[in-house]
Amino acid sequence: MASSISQNKRIIHTAGCLIIGDEVLGGKTVDTNSAYLAKFCFSLGMNLKRIEVISDDESEIIEATRRMSSNYDFVVTSGGIGPTHDDITYSSIAKGFGLTLKLHEQAFAKMKQVSKPHRSQPDFSWDKPSPALTAKLRMIELPWDESNEQNNEVLFVDDSLWVPISVVNGNVHILPGVPRLFQQLLEGLRPHLVPRLSDPEGKGIHRVLFSTPLAESAVAGYLTELAAKVEPKGVKVGSYPRWGKNRNTVTLVGRDEELLESLISEVEKGVQGHRVKTEGEDDSDEETHVSSQ
Prior knowledge:
four-stranded antiparallel β-sheet, alpha/beta, 293 residues
């Protein structure tokens, strides 16, 4: 396994996402964080290669984070860093990478400054030991590598939040599962990532959408020929049925915007359709329920 220092500095090409939580697997909570991360990675030109959902189980967390850290340049975990007994992400990842847990003093100072006790805890004190204080401190007892520089291990990316981003092995970024916090921290992380992208300008990946009245089976032959021609040039061709609608969607995805633009007329002719900005923008009010395939 590469050292955490080298992982922290290497160019980011690929990404992996690990959603941790029994509540997601049990259907209680609908995961939106992986979708947000997918759009985030797309906008920066990262190839998100894998999304996994696992339970709050130490052995699963250890196996998944070690594997993803080894396989991908940028890894994000979501969930399991709250104050209760079943929040075991920090401790599990620390164990998986042979690290200890350490109370992060700067995070504690920020927590005291920004966080307000819940109204159900009117007598709560930051200076007096209590079960509530112990629970809160669980959220800032972070995996710690004594051989690494502190500013590589813990990032504070939003001054309005006390919540840190713990970075383990140089590329595993541990984020909360609460969608608002997840999104806010991820966006705050953006400036830290852009200099490490394969495209340092962070222009991202481009997608062109086409609306076609043809069934998927009718355009399959043409799309097969198109894919054989353009995929070696870094362009992916996609076809997506829209059940209950009169029109389907074809997409071109790639990094070379000029190349994508040069293909538009050809694809419009090939699928007997036209380019659209958003899927469904040309739907009629009266859609007939015909087979999209």
